[in-house]
Amino acid sequence: MQGPLAGLVVFDLTRVLAGPFSTQMLGDLGADIIKIERIEGGDDTRNFAPPFLKDVDGKDTDESAYFAGANRNKRSITLNLNSKEGQDLAKKLIAKSDILVENFKVGTLKKFGLDYSSLKEEFPGLIYCSVTGFGQTGPYSNRPAYDALIQAMGGVMSLTGEPNGEPMKVGVSIADLMAGMYASIGILAALRHRDNTGKGQNIDISMLDAHVAWLANQGMNYLSTGESPERLGNQHPNILPYQVMPTNDGYFVLSVGNDATFERFCVVAGCEYLLEDPRYAKAIERVKNRSLVTAELNNITSQKDTKWWLENLEKNNIGCSAINTLKEVFSNPQVKERKMVVEMEHPSVKGAPIKLIANPLKMKEGTVTYRRPPPQHGEHTVDILKEYLNLSDEEIKNHKSNGTI
After folding, report:
1. CATH classification at residue 283
2. C-alpha–C-alpha distance, residues 29 and 288, integer Å
C-alpha cells in the first residue's frame, strides 16, 4: 500500500532531531526521503549512544537507538557539500525533488549555493523548509540552539517542576519535536498551495516560535493577567483536582474536568460532605482555594491503595491513571491494540527485527507505510545516483576517488 505522499521526493539536509523527525513523518506518508549525510560521521545522532540497537544475541550493533527513532523510511547518501562537485550533485538531485528540508545554522547553505534565495529562480516549484533555533530573522537568528536551551528561553521550564524546587525541562526533547511537527504541517500546506498555484515557497520554522505557540493555556494565562504563572508541580493551573494524588501504597493521576465529575468523585470517595462547602463544590472556587482543597483531597486518597482508586474511579467514568513506566506503557493493552510498536528488519541486526515507535496516524485510505528501516551511513549512495541521475559506475567511481561522495 502506498501512502498519500507517494511519488514525492524529499531532499533531506537535516540531522539530529527536529528536522529528521519532520522528514520521517513525510517518509511514513509515502514520500521518498533522500537523506544527505556527511562523508565523515554522518548524522550526529549516529553517535548519540548508548544505547545501541542490539542483535539477536543481545549484543550492541553500531546503530544508535536515537538515530533509529527518527530516520526510518529514508535512504542515506554521503555527499561532500564543501566541494564544487558535491554542490553540483546536490543541485541535480534537488532538480528531481519536490521538497527540500534543512536545519543548518542560518547562512551556512548560502556558502554552498543551496539556500532558498540561490535556488528559487532555478526551481520555482520547490518547497524549501528551514528549521532553525530562532528562524531566519531577528536578533537571535545566528545563535546556535539546543532543545534544553529553547525550553529554558521559551518558558516551559519556568512552568515545570515543584513550586519550591528547581525549574525542570520536559523529559523528552519536546522543543525539537514540536518544531518538526510544525515543519511537517507547513510542508503539507505548501503542497496544497503548489497544487493550486504551481508555485513552491519558503517555510521558516523557528524552534523558539514553535515553543511559544504551544505554551497554550499557560501563555494565555499570562497574556490575560500580565503575571507569570508559578510552578505548580503536577497540578493544573486552571482545573482542580487534576494532578498526582497520593495513596497508601503509591500515587495515581486524577483528572476531574468539571463539577459533575467532582460530584461523582465525592460519592466514590465517600466525601459527599464536601459538596456542601462552596470552596469545594464549584470548579472556580476549588482553584481559588488550591492549598485547602489539595490538602483535604490528598488526605482522602491516602486512605486507600492505588488499585482500589483506579478500579472504582474507572467504574464511575472518572479520569484516572496509574503512573506507568515505559515498560508498562509498551505492554499496555490499548497501546498494543493500536499497534504503536512496529518491527522492521535491519541490516545491522541479523536474525531479529528491530522495534521502532510507530507513527500515530490512523487513516482508512492512504495510511502510513513502513518500507525502509533506518539507513546505514551512506547505504544508498550508489543506488540514488544511478536511479535519479543515471550516473555510470565509472562516474560514481570517480566521485568516490575525488572525495565527492
Report:
1. 3.30.1540.10
2. 46
Cell numbers standing for residue 87 = 554542490
Which grid coordinates are listed for 296?
483535604
Residues 196 and 167 in one domain: yes
Catalytic (active-site) positions: 176
Task: Count Cβ atoms below 10 Å from residue 219 Cβ, excluding itself.
Answer: 16
Angular region, 250: left φ>0, alpha ψ -120 to 50, beta rest? left
300: three-class secondary structure by DSSP:
helix
Phi, psi of 308 (to 5 degrees): -60, -45
The dihedrals phi and psi of 23, each to the nearest 5 degrees, come to -70, -30
pLDDT, one tens digit per residue, over 6-54 is: 999 999 999 999 999 999 999 999 999 999 999 999 999 999 999 999 8
Indicate whether 223 belongs to any domain.
Answer: no
Cis (ω within 30 of 0) for the bond into 278?
no
Quick one: which H or E segment has residue 53? strand 52-54
- 167 and 115 in a common domain: yes
**What backbone phi and psi angles, to 5 degrees, belong to 33?**
-100, 115
Q: Where are the alpha helices (DSSP H) in 56-136?
A: 65-68, 84-94, 116-119
